[in-house]
Write a structure and sequence with these properties.
Number of domains: 1
Oligomer: single chain
Number of strands: 7
Largest sheet: 7 strands, mixed
CATH topology: Aminopeptidase
CATH class: Alpha Beta
Shape: globular
Length: about 160
């Protein structure tokens, strides 16, 4: 039987575990560490930090963003944009990210009933992340965007 993976909105008690996140340089070029992303969330109420729990312990992190700040990625006013996905290295290889992305549509439907689509941007060079997103139902409809470190594919998952 596989270990339980669930999603929870960030709570202060998650801070200690999240502060230990370190990512290899190759991964860090594509995402932000949880504490860095949390600082941005504190200043922007349209960003909602989410913790990926593995057997009840923080194992990963991402942000769900809605509103005008996501218009560079989608024109859908009912979309949620996924930002800053990371999984702590000690939990990588345990299918934590895959199970979190599979759980996300249900989580989004409960907490953001207006949402009818999940959207994200993934760097052209981030092959591992692309594979994860395609395996969990995200679609490439041909939309591209210039990012800070190269071309990004904009992927969508209709809900």
């Amino acid at each position: 039987m596989s270990a339980e993976v669930s999603l929870s909105f960030y709570q202060p008690e998650h801070n200690q575990e999240l502060s230990t996140f370190e990512l290899p340089k190759e991964q860090l070029r594509f995402t932000a560490l949880p504490l860095t992303a949390l600082k941005v969330c504190e200043e922007d109420q349209s960003r909602h930090p989410v913790v990926i729990l593995y057997e009840g312990k923080p194992a990963g992190f991402f942000v769900l963003h809605h509103g005008p700040g996501i218009t560079p990625f989608t024109e859908n006013p009912n979309a949620l944009f996924i930002r800053a996905l990371s999984v702590h290295p000690k939990y990588q290889g345990k299918r934590v990210a895959k199970r979190a992305m599979l759980a996300l549509p249900g989580f989004a439907s409960v907490h953001f009933p207006f949402c009818d689509e999940l959207v994200l941007a993934v760097n052209k060079k981030n092959i591992a992340a692309q594979q994860l997103y395609f395996k969990t139902g995200f679609e490439d409809r041909g939309q591209r965007r210039a990012g800070n470190i190269g071309i990004q594919y904009i992927l969508q998952l209709p809900l």
